[in-house]
């Protein structure tokens, strides 16, 4: 097998804080193939954004400290100089964030926002950059692109701002797009537009996508493969179908059981929501056993003492649980 | 049939926009523009719709956080919207609210004990100190927090625990109606399930009426008895949960249902992607407010504003399509399952 586009090995991003070291990301490994869409899910604070920021080396160091390796097209990004890294950011790897208002520059019009990256990375002239900006706005479905391109972020609606973010991210034909909660701040009908746009663009542009979200519905709709994170660790990974059909890790099972499914009142499958008791553990204290043991219904002394290794429980399906069944549990 | 515990009739709330040289009123936000509904004892009615459609404004108007532009709010047969503050006081106890943000809605300088004691004292619900303490302890039990946590400060609790305190505070007043304004929206998935279950249990146990304001349709379906869908300050559809999810009668509801991502990979469903954004409530479109985004709009929709009409027993929709013969009405059938891929 050829080398994947992105290969993350034992990524560890810790933060120094006055009351201890925050193990935000604590040794996770995964890969992303060319053109593939991989989702990272998990609850607030489990380290999704820190993983994304680490991949682009946008973590302030100190207080942060990144270890491990992040091989992108064979090159370890953690070994590059800041200058080399800048040539990759926004060019070969680009990123879209949850809140476009804070990531767009309020004093630049749309033409400049998009043009800036193009001029920086591709050396286009101002004129060419503006033409390309209009082309990109058309691509992301903004009506009247020639007028909109002269507007400023505050003149745009939330959905349009997110489209502009996507236009900027795609302007240089990246090979990898990291999208951190790209639709979380949007209304559901606008979210549907943006997800539709992302799917459509993926077919046309062919970029691989790392999609970060806490919304299992969004995962089911766009991802091909899913990584479940809990307290800074990867606890499960599988193809999207397998993950939803036969979740192996008790945390994933709990997560899936805790969201109501639209339409359950029609099928008579309405049940009480599953609760995962308790709270996510603090990342500032070292956890010896399984990170989920304090909330897991199946936990035994073994779980509390020894951290389970990630094991392949079925082809392409790994989970870090001492008891996760090797055979599919008939659901 | 007994009278609903809460009735809202033709409620309007317009916010003036000041501007211009003399700072006069230059325009108005038609935040809520003539809506009516009622809630029975023990019933949950949900208000759904996208950001800015006026959901919170409805809740705040009922709570009298500001005056109404027009309309009436009737609590158990008594009109309360025009009552002077003094007379309103005892009635105020009967409607309580739980907001989205447990962080900002709890006073950081009060211990949990005092947060819960305040409404009990204000409304004179305890005869003496011992009874007050007892009530506070029982409230902690009700929301499943340890009794000995009453001495702690809000910042010592997690988001979900703070929301439990917010719920306990609302229950302290012994209300008949609870308004939940996005009460679970800010919570993490697994914690959200805990609070949803708690609210459901409490409602059953105490026979509370609930106005559940949310933009999350899956949670609404799970929680509610009936649903009112809002768009730009108007209710466009009202129905029982089952009717609304199985056979939406308004094109906006249909689009909303089809837009919700469902956690079922590969689910084959009909997708309706609305074009454009929600128009501004300062200048809502003439005719049907939804016509700028509606895939079925025809000439009449651009000039004539549809009113809520009954389409089936207990099912109301404001759409001109229902004046057409069934063969020419794409909203006549039952297609909920195709939209949401119910299996
Ligand atoms: N610059 C920083 N300094 C110190 N700690 C940080 C910093 N950035 C993030 N953290 C911590 O790292 C942990 C993981 O945060 P992260 O933002 O990755 O969570 P997340 O999974 O993206 O959550 P959410 O769903 O809320 O966005 C948290 O405990 C957070 O407080
Ligand atoms: N005090 C106010 N002054 C002026 N306009 C207001 C005021 N409060 C609300 N509005 C406007 O009224 C409209 C309805 O607002 P409201 O908060 O009721 O919406 P909502 O449906 O609760 O939205 P969300 O889902 O975002 O909470 C919005 O356009 C809002 O900007
Ligand atoms: S009245 Fe016309 S525009 Fe409005 S929802 Fe019905 S068909 Fe669409
Ligand atoms: Mg994040
Ligand atoms: Mg609101």
TrEMBL record, chain A:
Q: Please provide the record's keywords in A-Z order.
A: ATP-binding, Cell membrane, Membrane, Nucleotide-binding, Transport
- Tell where it localizes: Cell inner membrane
PROSITE patterns referenced in this protein's UniProt entry, alphabetically: ABC_TRANSPORTER_1, ABC_TRANSPORTER_2
Q: Name one Pfam family in it.
A: oligo_HPY
Main localization of the protein described in the UniProt heading: membrane
Q: What membrane topology was assigned to this protein in its record?
A: Peripheral membrane protein
GO MF entries:
ATP binding; ATP hydrolysis activity
Q: Name one GO biological process term.
A: peptide transport
One Gene Ontology cellular component term attached to this UniProt record is:
plasma membrane
Query: What InterPro entries does this protein's entry cite?
Result: AAA+_ATPase, ABC_Ni/Peptide_Import, ABC_transporter-like_ATP-bd, ABC_transporter-like_CS, Oligopep_ABC_C, P-loop_NTPase
Any idea where the ABC transporter domain is? 6-256
Family designation: Belongs to the ABC transporter superfamily.
PANTHER family according to UniProt: DIPEPTIDE TRANSPORT ATP-BINDING PROTEIN DPPD, OLIGOPEPTIDE TRANSPORT ATP-BINDING PROTEIN APPD
This chain belongs to the protein called ABC transporter ATP-binding protein
Q: Which organism is it from?
A: Plastoroseomonas arctica
Q: What is the lineage of its organism?
A: Bacteria, Pseudomonadati, Pseudomonadota, Alphaproteobacteria, Acetobacterales
UniProtKB/TrEMBL annotation, chain B:
Q: Which domain of life is it from?
A: Bacteria
Q: Which InterPro entries match?
A: AAA+_ATPase, ABC_transp_ATP-bind, ABC_transporter-like_ATP-bd, ABC_transporter-like_CS, Oligopep_ABC_C, P-loop_NTPase
Listed name of the protein: ATP-binding cassette domain-containing protein
The record's subcellular location field reads:
Cell inner membrane
State if Glycosyltransferase is listed as a keyword.
Answer: no
The principal localisation class reads: membrane
Q: Which organism is it from?
A: Plastoroseomonas arctica
Per the record, membrane topology reads:
Peripheral membrane protein
One MF term from GO for this chain? ATP binding
GO:BP terms for this protein?
peptide transport; transmembrane transport
- ABC transporter domain residues are 6-257
Q: Name one GO cellular component term.
A: plasma membrane
| TM segment ranges | none
């Amino acid at each position: 097998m050829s080398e994947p586009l992105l290969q993350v090995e034992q990524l560890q991003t810790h933060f120094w804080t006055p009351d201890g070291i925050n193990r935000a990301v604590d040794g996770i490994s995964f890969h992303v193939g060319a053109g593939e869409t991989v989702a990272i899910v998990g609850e607030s604070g489990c380290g999704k954004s820190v993983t994304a920021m680490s991949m682009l080396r946008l973590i302030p160091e100190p207080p942060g400290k990144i270890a491990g390796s992040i091989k992108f097209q064979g090159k370890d990004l953690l070994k590059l100089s800041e200058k080399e890294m800048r040539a990759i950011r926004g060019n070969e790897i680009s990123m879209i964030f949850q809140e476009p208002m804070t990531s767009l520059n309020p004093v630049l019009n749309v033409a400049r926002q998009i043009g800036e990256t193009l001029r920086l990375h591709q050396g286009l002239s101002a004129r060419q950059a503006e033409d390309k900006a209009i082309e990109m706005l058309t691509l992301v479905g903004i009506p009247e692109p020639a007028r909109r391109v002269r507007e400023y972020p505050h003149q745009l609606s939330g959905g349009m701002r997110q489209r502009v973010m996507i236009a900027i991210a795609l302007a240089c034909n990246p090979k990898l797009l990291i999208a951190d909660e790209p639709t979380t701040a949007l209304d559901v009908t606008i979210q549907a537009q943006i997800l539709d746009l992302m799917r459509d663009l993926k077919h046309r542009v062919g970029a691989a996508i790392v999609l970060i979200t806490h919304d299992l519905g969004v995962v089911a709709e766009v991802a091909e493969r899913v990584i479940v994170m809990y307290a800074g660790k990867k606890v499960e990974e599988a193809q999207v179908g397998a993950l939803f059909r036969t979740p192996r890790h008790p945390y994933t099972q709990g997560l899936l059981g805790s969201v109501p499914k639209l339409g359950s009142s029609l099928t008579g499958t309405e049940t009480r929501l599953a609760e995962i008791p308790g709270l996510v553990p603090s990342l500032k204290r070292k956890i010896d056993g399984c990170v989920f043991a304090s909330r897991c219904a199946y936990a035994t002394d073994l779980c509390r003492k020894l951290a389970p290794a990630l094991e392949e429980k079925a082809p392409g399906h790994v989970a870090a649980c001492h008891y996760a069944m090797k055979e599919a549990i008939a659901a | 049939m007994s009278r609903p515990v809460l009735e809202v009739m033709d409620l309007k709330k317009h916010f003036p926009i000041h501007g211009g040289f003399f700072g006069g009123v230059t325009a108005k936000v038609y935040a809520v523009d003539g809506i009516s509904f009622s809630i029975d004892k023990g019933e949950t009615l949900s208000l759904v719709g996208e950001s800015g459609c006026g959901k919170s404004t409805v809740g705040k108007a009922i709570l009298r956080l500001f005056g109404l532009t027009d309309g009436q709010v009737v609590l158990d047969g008594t009109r309360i919207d025009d009552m002077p503050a003094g007379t309103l006081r005892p009635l105020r106890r009967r409607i309580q609210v739980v907001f989205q943000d447990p962080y900002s809605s709890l006073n950081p300088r009060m211990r949990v004990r005092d947060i819960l004691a305040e409404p009990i004292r204000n409304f004179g619900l305890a005869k003496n100190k011992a009874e007050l303490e007892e009530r506070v302890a029982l409230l902690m039990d009700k929301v499943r927090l340890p009794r000995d946590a009453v001495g702690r400060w809000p910042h010592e609790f997690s988001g979900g625990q703070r929301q439990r305190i917010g719920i306990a505070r609302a229950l302290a007043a012994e209300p008949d109606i609870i308004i939940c304004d996005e009460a679970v929206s800010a919570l993490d998935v697994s914690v959200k399930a805990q609070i949803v279950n708690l609210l459901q249990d409490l409602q059953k146990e105490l026979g509370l009426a609930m106005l559940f304001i949310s933009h999350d349709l899956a949670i609404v379906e799970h929680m509610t008895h009936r649903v009112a869908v809002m768009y730009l300050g108007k209710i466009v559809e009202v129905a029982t949960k089952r009717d609304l999810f199985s056979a939406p009668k308004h094109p906006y509801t249909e689009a909303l249902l089809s837009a919700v991502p469902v956690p079922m990979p590969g689910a084959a469903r009909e997708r309706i992607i609305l074009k454009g954004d929600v128009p501004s409530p300062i200048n809502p479109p003439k005719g049907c407010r939804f016509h700028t985004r509606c895939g079925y709009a025809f000439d009449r929709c651009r000039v004539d504003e549809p009113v809520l009409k009954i389409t089936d027993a207990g099912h109301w929709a404001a759409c001109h399509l229902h004046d057409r013969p069934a063969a020419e009405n794409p909203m006549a059938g039952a297609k909920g399952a195709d939209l949401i891929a119910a299996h």
